[in-house]
Write a structure and sequence with these properties.
This protein is α+β, with helices and mostly antiparallel strands and 75 residues long.
């Protein structure tokens, strides 16, 4: 498969363990996984299409910066 890195939201961390087992069972090299914090709104609810959250493009148009969205995330 030649996948070396997987970057995805922290909400998927519990799926990683099953996927690691599958990689090993199928004889594939295991990629490095990184689970990044989710982007959330002011109430702490994650931005998601299924809940009609604003797109990043819309937030940028409103003048929001990446720093605004990161909040207190470690860098």
């Amino acid at each position: 498969m030649k996948i070396t890195e997987v970057v995805r939201g922290a909400d998927l961390i519990t799926s990683t363990f099953r996927q690691l087992l599958l990689y090993r069972a199928l004889g594939h090299d295991v990629p490095a996984f990184y689970h990044c914090p989710l982007v959330t709104d002011e109430q702490g609810i994650r931005l998601a299409k299924r809940s009609d959250a604003l797109a990043l493009r819309t937030l940028r148009a409103q003048g929001r910066t990446p720093e605004d969205l990161r909040g207190d995330w470690p860098t």
